[in-house]
Protein: tRNA (N6-threonylcarbamoyladenosine(37)-N6)-methyltransferase TrmO
Amino acid sequence: MTEIKLKSIGFAKNQEAKHVGGWAGVVTDLVIEKPYEDALLGLNDYSHLIVIYWMHEVNKCELRHVPQGKVGVVPEVGIFACRCTHRPNPIGVSTVKILEIQDNIITVQGLDVINNTPIVDIKPYTPQYDAISEAKVPDWVNKLDY
Structure:
């Protein structure tokens, strides 16, 4: 297997130590390292952001999982068929609302990370690339907490 090295561009700062489901109202500061501050130019023209992060406290991989632990409510599925944390590479991706950008700090809402999660990359959400109008998902996905 090929080894890949990543470096963080910053970290997430919030009050979350452990949390499962219901992230919509969580407010988080993305503290971007000072050398990358200039890369934020123009980001304030967007309303949403895609955040790629490293789930640094995940220490196991499960090939099958019951999303959000909702046994009997949703089926057990393969880890690649859900957005669960225990992955071969604990990379997370979330689309969030930008509340404010001040210097090297981006305040966002709805990011499903705990405090001090390393941020690997950020990208502006653009409907031309990111919105899929006819996306299909299984019915059980509607039983999860967001």
Notes: Strands lie at 10-13, 27-32, 48-54, 64-65, 77-78, 91-102, 105-109, 118-124.
